[in-house]
Design goal:
This protein is of the alpha/beta class and 322 residues long. Helices cover 35% and strands 19% of the residues. The chain has two domains: 1-147, Spore Coat Polysaccharide Biosynthesis Protein SpsA, Chain A (Alpha-Beta Complex), CATH 3.90.550; 152-322, no CATH class. The chain has helices spanning 30-35, 37-40, 72-80, 99-107, 124-134, 154-162, 183-200, 216-221, 231-241, 266-278, 294-311, and strands at residues 2-7, 16-18, 24-28, 57-65, 86-92, 113-117, 137-142, 168-172, 178-179, 212-215, 246-250, 253-254, 318-319. Helix 7 (183-200) packs parallel to helix 10 (266-278).
C-alpha cells in the first residue's frame, strides 16, 4: 500500500515527513514509509532520484479524481485488468464524498496503487502535476476517474511508443466508437482542435482527449502550469512546440451527463482558446531518454498482440504531419 497526503508541515509520531521546497508529502503508516523511503524521496520538481531507473515500471497511470464515489472502484478495477506492467497513481483532489474511504480500502492490499490526497481542491491540472512527481513509469497516461474512457484501449495507445515508432500518442474519440457527447460539446471540441491545427501547423482530430500518452520524461519537460482543464490545450501546445509528431489511435468514448457528474463547463472552452494563444510561442528543451528496455518491450508487445487477436481487430494508427 502507498497512501500519500499533501498537507501543511507538522510533526507527529504517526507520520514520517520528507521536507522539500514544494508542499510536504506525508506517507503513512511509519513502518511502510520507512520501508519505501528511497522510492519516494525524490525531488518533486523533477521526479528524479538515484533509484528512479532501478524501480521503474513500464506504464504510470495518473488518475485525477474528485467526488467519484460511484465510479472510482470500477475504473480502478478496469485499469488493474490491463495486462501491462504498470503502477496506478490516484490523486484525490480533496473529494467530499466517500471517494477517500474507497481509495483507502482499495490501496490497502495493492502495492502498485498509490493514493495522494490534496488538502484543498486545486483542479485537474494540479492533480496531474502531483501525480507526475511520483511517476516511475517509462510511459505515462492520464486516466479520468469516471467511466467515459475505456482502459482496454491502453494496448493500442502504448504500442507505437513501445515499438519505438513515436514518443507521443493521442487517443482520438472522433476516429473511434463514441456516444453520449452533447452536440455543442462536440462542436466546441472540433473548433478547438481546428484552432490547434491552424496555430501549430498540425493535423489532429481530438485536442481535448483525456488519453494523452507519452514518454514520462517528455511530460516532465513540458513544465506544466495550468491548474484546471486548461492542462489539455497546454499539454498539446507544448508537445507540438517541441516538435513531436502526434500519433492518433481510435478509442471508444461513453460520455456521461452533467447530472452524472460531468464537470467541464462552457467557460472552459474560452479558457482553452486563450491557452492555445498563450503558448503559441513557447520554447522548451527536448529531453533525452533511453529506449525502453528490450525485454520489457517484448513482454508488453506480446500482451498487445494477444489482446488484438482476442478482440479480432487490427488498429488504425494515424500520424500527425506537423
Amino acid at each position: 500500500m502507498s497512501l500519500i497526503q499533501q498537507t501543511s508541515p507538522f510533526w507527529s509520531a504517526n507520520f514520517l515527513i520528507y521536507w522539500y521546497d514544494l508542499p510536504v508529502t506525508l506517507e503513512y503508516p511509519l513502518r511502510a514509509a520507512c520501508r519505501t523511503r528511497s522510492a519516494h524521496c525524490r525531488d518533486e520538481r523533477s521526479g528524479s532520484s538515484s533509484e528512479h531507473k532501478e524501480d521503474s515500471v513500464l506504464l504510470s497511470v495518473i488518475m485525477p479524481c474528485y467526488n467519484e464515489e460511484q465510479t472510482i472502484r470500477t475504473i480502478i478495477d478496469q485499469v488493474r485488468a490491463v495486462r501491462l506492467e504498470k503502477e496506478i497513481i490516484v490523486v484525490d483532489d480533496h473529494s467530499q464524498d466517500r471517494t477517500p474511504e474507497i481509495l483507502r480500502e482499495l490501496a490497502a492490499d495493492d502495492p502498485l496503487l498509490r493514493v495522494i490526497r490534496h488538502p484543498v481542491n486545486r483542479g485537474k491540472g494540479d492533480t496531474i502535476r502531483t501525480g507526475l512527481t511520483h511517476a516511475r513509469g517509462e510511459i505515462v497516461i492520464i486516466q479520468d476517474s469516471d467511466l467515459e474512457y475505456d482502459p482496454s484501449d491502453y494496448y493500442e495507445l502504448v504500442r507505437p511508443i513501445i515499438a519505438g515508432r513515436v514518443d507521443v500518442v493521442f487517443g482520438a474519440r472522433f476516429l473511434g466508437r463514441h456516444t453520449g457527447m452533447y452536440f455543442w460539446n462536440a462542436v466546441g471540441n472540433k473548433f478547438l482542435t481546428m484552432m490547434t491545427n491552424f496555430l501549430y501547423n498540425c493535423w489532429i482530430s481530438d485536442m481535448e482527449t483525456c488519453y494523452k500518452v507519452m514518454r514520462t520524461d517528455i511530460m516532465r519537460s513540458l513544465h506544466l502550469e495550468s491548474n484546471d482543464f486548461r492542462i489539455e490545450p497546454e499539454m498539446t501546445a507544448k508537445v507540438l512546440r517541441l516538435g513531436y509528431r502526434i500519433y492518433q489511435v481510435p478509442i471508444s468514448y461513453m460520455g456521461r451527463k452533467y447530472e452524472e457528474g460531468k464537470k467541464i463547463k462552457k467557460i472552459d472552452g474560452l479558457k482553452a482558446i486563450l491557452t492555445l494563444l498563450r503558448f503559441r510561442n513557447w520554447h522548451g528543451t527536448v529531453p533525452r531518454f533511453n529506449p525502453i528496455d528490450p525485454a520489457t518491450a517484448s513482454v508488453a508487445l506480446q500482451a498487445v498482440r494477444e489482446h488484438s487477436q482476442y478482440n479480432g481487430f487490427t488498429p488504425f494508427v494515424s500520424n500527425s504531419p506537423n
